[in-house]
Amino acid sequence: MRGQNITLLCEKRRALIHELEQGKLSKEHFILENYEMLKTIKYVDLEVKDVEEGVLKYHYFNTMAKMKMLTADELEYRDPEGCKGLREAAYELYTKKERITLGLLTLVDYHHISAYYIGLAERIRIQLQQPDF
What we know:
DUF6648, two-stranded antiparallel sheet, 4 helices, mainly alpha
């Protein structure tokens, strides 16, 4: 996940976010589109070398976890054990996403960070800000 590939994936993601914000995509379809975009990536490690790569890795683990949760929701009543397994796998992916977040924060030495509340399921969004050099 380097260079031009990261840039292309980021551009596609921004376009999907725009469509979601405009109401052209449902949240579920947004997750599915992101999954389709990222599913060909075979291995993602937990090392954060730079901000751009870290953000993409965060996005990867978050998307994979959300996809597992969507699939688990579909199985909830038909296959409770399968549902449970998928949820556990999703939680492992969310844990990896949080490790990436910590790696990003460490990389920037906890500087130029802002966090703010967003009204979706009581979540807090963390934003890296460009330092004024």
